[in-house]
Design a protein that fits this description.
Elements lengths: L2 H22 L5 H8 L8 H22 L19 H16 L3
Length: 105
């Protein structure tokens, strides 16, 4: 199996694991997400727990990436270069929110 095939297989496995984790946590249920966003009638903090746990899980990976020049299955890390909040970022976030609004969320 080539390096590219291993990278694709690991991406598929990572995405599958991520989706499975969201499904087990109940985050695929729109009512659960809406309950988290509803600050008027009482917020459901379980989504915050899932997000915090995800942060704790990814932290060792980022620490490992800072100590190495390249990942195991690629020639270099593909980390974001931009860190500034610019117009395309704000417009993208606004479009995302508008999409949620149109969908009734």
């Amino acid at each position: 199996m080539s390096r590219t095939s291993w990278a694709g297989a690991s991406a598929l496995a990572s995405g599958t694991l991520f989706g499975l984790g969201l499904a087990i946590a109940g985050m695929t249920d729109p009512r659960k997400v809406l309950a988290f966003l509803d600050v008027v009638c009482g917020c459901d903090p379980s989504l915050l727990l899932v997000l915090g746990t995800a942060g704790l899980v990814i932290l060792p990976g980022y620490r490992w990436a800072r100590c190495h020049k390249a990942p195991l299955l690629a020639d270099r890390f593909h980390l974001p270069a931009a860190s500034a909040i610019d117009t395309p970022l704000v417009l993208g976030a606004a479009l995302f929110g508008i999409g949620w609004g149109i969908a009734g969320y």
